[in-house]
């Protein structure tokens, strides 16, 4: 039998809003929304005082202001949130190398085999929360359980500044009364489809056979079947930096002429550059991949001393790699472009979330 895992989910309380209240005493005890108040603004985070009025993150600013006329809008300061995020990750790293960040302020920790001997995962969660408070002046909540799904549910249970344990064997009973819409991994669309099938709670989900779930939800069915029973085998996966970013396309019609190949490469290069900039990264090496109709494949690479600076430079490099292969010996069915030897253009561990929020 596999040993029971010990998983902690740590979640900072009203993170962005709490940072703003920490740094501006006049905001403490007041309803605060991080975000812009303009027409198209969105609330990124709301203080607990604002939540009492029904203000929630992702809510349009105009709606939030209507619900809470006293609401104070504060523009986001992502560089500060990133710095705090690095501080809390440093705390986590004292206890385990197995840290999976979900966002700047949330992470799963596997403490089955901790770096510091402690009597329980509960004790570790308490120490981590105390250290976070001492070192950042902010509070965090924690969920402790034997898998990620339950640990995440548990961290919400005693929020703010609390923690909750779901011990081995207690998961199925814990999820039975909860609405499926509150389960992490079941989004609003899936929850609505489940409701339409008469599935409202964990207990309802528990009565469905795996067959029925597969028929309605495909690949995700196994996960749903498991969580209804308090089971979730997914490991805590530490963030690993990507080694390359690339895209390839198999064309419906084989490419034969220069005036088909160059535009196709341009499209690929633009989409790869878009993916790079989204991740705040670029690389020194560009690789072109080409597969002929007979499935013979070849790659050509070129490395620079500095990272590719722009979409145009990437496109020109891809074209430069293609040129010696023309005219084609036979038609091409697939083209690919990859950027590797990546270097981050930022130092943050959670830049993807930031780019999601960059419209705020
Ligand atoms: Mg949070």
From TrEMBL:
Its EC number is 2.7.7.7. Belongs to the DNA polymerase type-Y family. It is found in: Cytoplasm. The gene is dinB. It comes from Acetobacter malorum DSM 14337. The keyword Magnesium applies. It comes from the Bacteria. The keyword Metal-binding applies. This is DNA polymerase IV.
């Amino acid at each position: 039998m596999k040993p029971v895992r010990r998983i902690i989910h740590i979640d900072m309380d009203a993170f962005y809003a709490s940072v703003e209240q920490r740094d501006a005493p006049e905001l403490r005890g007041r309803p605060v929304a991080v975000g812009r108040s303009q027409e198209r603004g969105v609330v990124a985070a709301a203080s607990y005082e604002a939540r009492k009025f029904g203000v929630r993150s992702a809510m349009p600013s105009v709606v939030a202001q209507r619900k809470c006329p006293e609401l104070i809008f504060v523009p986001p300061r992502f560089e500060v949130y990133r710095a705090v995020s690095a501080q809390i990750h440093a705390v986590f790293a004292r206890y385990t190398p197995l840290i999976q960040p979900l966002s700047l302020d949330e992470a799963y920790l596997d403490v089955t085999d901790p770096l510091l001997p402690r009597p329980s995962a509960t004790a570790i969660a308490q120490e981590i929360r105390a250290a976070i408070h001492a070192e950042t002046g902010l509070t965090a909540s924690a969920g402790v359980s034997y898998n990620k799904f339950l640990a995440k549910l548990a961290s919400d249970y005693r929020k703010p500044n609390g923690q909750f344990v779901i011990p081995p064997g207690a998961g199925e009973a814990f999820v039975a009364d909860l609405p499926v819409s509150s389960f992490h991994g079941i989004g609003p669309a899936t929850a609505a489809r489940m409701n339409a099938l008469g599935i409202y709670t964990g207990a309802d989900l528990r009565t469905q056979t795996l067959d029925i779930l597969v028929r309605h939800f495909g690949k995700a069915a196994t996960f749903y079947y498991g969580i209804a029973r308090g089971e979730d085998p997914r490991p805590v996966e530490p963030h690993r930096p990507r080694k390359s970013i690339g895209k390839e396309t198999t064309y419906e019609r084989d490419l034969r002429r220069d005036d088909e190949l160059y535009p196709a490469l341009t499209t690929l290069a633009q989409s790869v550059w878009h993916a790079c900039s989204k991740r705040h990264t670029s690389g020194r090496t560009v690789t072109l991949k080409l597969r002929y109709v007979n499935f013979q494949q070849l790659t050509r690479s070129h490395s620079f001393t500095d990272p590719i600076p722009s979409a145009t430079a990437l496109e020109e490099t891809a074209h430069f790699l293609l040129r010696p292969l023309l005219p084609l010996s036979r038609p091409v069915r697939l083209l690919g472009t990859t950027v590797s030897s990546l270097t981050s253009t930022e130092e943050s561990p959670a830049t993807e979330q930031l780019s999601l929020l960059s419209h705020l």
